[in-house]
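[09:14] KT: can someone run the structure on this one? pasting the chain below
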Amino acid sequence: MKSIVTIFCSILITLHSVGQVNLVPNPSFEDTSSCPTQLNQVYKAIGWISFGNSPDFFHSCNSLYNFALGYQSPRTGNAYAGLALLLYGNPNREFIGIRLNDSLNIGQTYFVSFYVSCANGSSASLSSNNQGALFSTISYDSLNLPPINNYSNITNFNIITDSTNWIQVKGSFIADSNYKYICLGNFYSNQNTDTIRFPFGNTNSNSNSYYFLDDICVSEDSITCYLADDIAEQSEPKIVLFPNPNDGSFFVNLNFPSISIAIYNCLGQTIPFKSYIDNGFTKINILNSHSGIYYIKIANNEFIYKEKIFISNDY
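[09:31] RB: done, structure tokens below
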């Protein structure tokens, strides 16, 4: 009798574990063919391809080239993707996609989640809503773009302005086809996409709404994709400097109280600066700044944070 019960329990555990599988291969972009050397190399994250225009791939092996978009640490591991959800006054936007490990079953409920963080560098000046996931039976590309018909299977209708933390977008839907692919982006027209312009943002007509993307999940089991640890993540100290590079004037966004801020040049000499609050952000102006590399040190009772600042008088 004991052996029969053991076998029965093993079967139940096996059946449950099947539903816990994430159907998205390489969900956090960790498996790579090589280190990205520039933007628009999302194909170097194995399995992921552009489903429209030129989405980007970021990896800790090369962390310098995303400063124009605003720096962000990966939510997990060493990598994440990025894409423009809206170009102000322009119908174009970027999409990223991948073939699922298995086709979806018609009539089955699927739970979906992914994490986004708003870019806030000099090349991005808008935050927006409509971060979404669209499922399809075909693969898209720049010659066959995903439809912009104000619909996606999973859609975030709230404007996400957070550039410090990773925000989870999640939802569920019932598959009405044997979908093979997941595509991520903004599937709503510009007129149906809400935006907020950053107080420090670029004001030209081609301003971007750009978001970083990590940890994509599709599963029959809600626990697999809805496991929330946002509270624990937000308690971790984080800092964002933007823009970086800059002309000696930049913003600092913190999620913790700081006690001291100091700036040094490459010789270790202290550099004078002024700081004040501007629209909730700390704005810093380095006095008589010259082009070069500087270092900012922000400290409190628990830790010390250091980061490079790139200053160019031509910026």
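[09:33] KT: thanks! The chain is about 10% helix and 35% strand.
[09:34] RB: yep, looked fine to me
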